[in-house]
């Protein structure tokens, strides 16, 4: 299974030298997990002070460090792409969520900056994510809330929980009525 180590080392080299995210096949991650599990089992079964145990331990540690380095390099690429508002290919499923969270945080930051330009006092205020319960007074199409999540569409009489600023804006337009909860 030296080929697993070699493939991981090759991936690490490509990830370091190429600008975009490198494709990581799911079967490679499965093979890597299987191999690392096999090394752990062999390590548990071998005598602690043996040369074999030392070699297996060193190999396992090196593979862990290589994988961690690959994932950190990828995170840096994802963060930089998010700042440039670029889309990336070859994201792993958890990296897609990471990208969404970073984009959401950047959007929140930009909104705070825009609001701060109009009222600098808001830049110092810490805000809790306040939610409001509202009832829709008329049909209303799907919209994107301040948290960049899509809400709706809504029918007259629907009750929903949305962010305070969205609720206030819709109430001012007489689309919703804020509900007082007891």
From TrEMBL:
It comes from the Archaea. Pfam families: Gins51_C. InterPro entries: Gins51_C, GINS_bundle-like_dom_sf. Residues 134-174 form the Gins51 C-terminal domain. This is DNA replication complex GINS family protein. It comes from Caldiarchaeum subterraneum.
